[in-house]
């Protein structure tokens, strides 16, 4: 059994006061496919779903939880494809100087990757 690829986990935060449409625009890039979805859990009623233009199976979602913060979570069968998409998103946000952090864990709950822009560093992996 390959626990490294079993149910990889992505979690993250984005520190941004930008509203829904402005934040969605910040994520725009030819390497990404962006969708707006309806949410039954959040007050704004919508979330942003991002996929790589080359991989339909891997997704990362953004939901605004208050006026200054967005939370991220990811879904994929492969930790490699989840990391690749997270790196693309981190590059897009970094180019636009958007403060963020992304953590990716293997299926055995060990941290595989930490990506950030202007966020305090974690201890070395």
Please sum up the structure shown.
The chain is an alpha+beta fold and 125 residues long. It is 19% helix and 42% strand. The protein has a single domain, classed as TATA-Binding Protein.
Describe what this molecule looks like in 3D:
There is one protein chain. The protein is of the alpha+beta class and 125 residues long. It has a single domain (9-117), classed as TATA-Binding Protein (2-Layer Sandwich), CATH 3.30.310. It is 19% helix and 42% strand. It has 2 helices and 7 strands, in the order βαββββαββ. It has helices at 20-26, 79-95, and strands spanning 9-15, 32-38, 46-52, 55-66, 69-75, 100-105, 111-117. It has a 7-stranded antiparallel β-sheet with strand order 2-3-4-5-1-6-7, covered by helices on one side. β6 and β7 form a beta hairpin. The longest helix has 17 residues, at 79-95. It is globular. The relative contact order is 0.24. The mean pLDDT is 87.
List the helices and strands and how they pair.
Layout: E1 9-15, H1 20-26, E2 32-38, E3 46-52, E4 55-66, E5 69-75, H2 79-95, E6 100-105, E7 111-117
Antiparallel strand pairs: 1-5, 1-6, 2-3, 3-4, 4-5, 6-7
Task: Name a few traits of the molecule.
7-stranded antiparallel sheet; 7 strands; alpha+beta; 125 residues; 42% strand
């Amino acid at each position: 059994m390959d626990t490294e690829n079993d149910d990889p986990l992505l979690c993250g935060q984005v520190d941004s006061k930008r509203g829904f449409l402005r934040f969605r625009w910040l994520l725009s890039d030819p390497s990404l496919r962006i969708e707006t979805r309806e949410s039954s859990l959040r007050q704004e009623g919508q979330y942003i779903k991002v996929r790589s233009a080359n991989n339909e199976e891997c997704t990362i979602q953004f939901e605004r939880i208050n006026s200054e913060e967005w939370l991220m979570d990811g879904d994929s069968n492969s930790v490699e494809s989840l990391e690749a998409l997270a790196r693309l998103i981190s590059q897009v946000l970094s180019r636009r100087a958007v403060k963020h952090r992304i953590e990716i864990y293997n299926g055995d709950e060990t941290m595989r990757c930490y990506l950030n822009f202007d966020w305090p560093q974690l201890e070395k992996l």
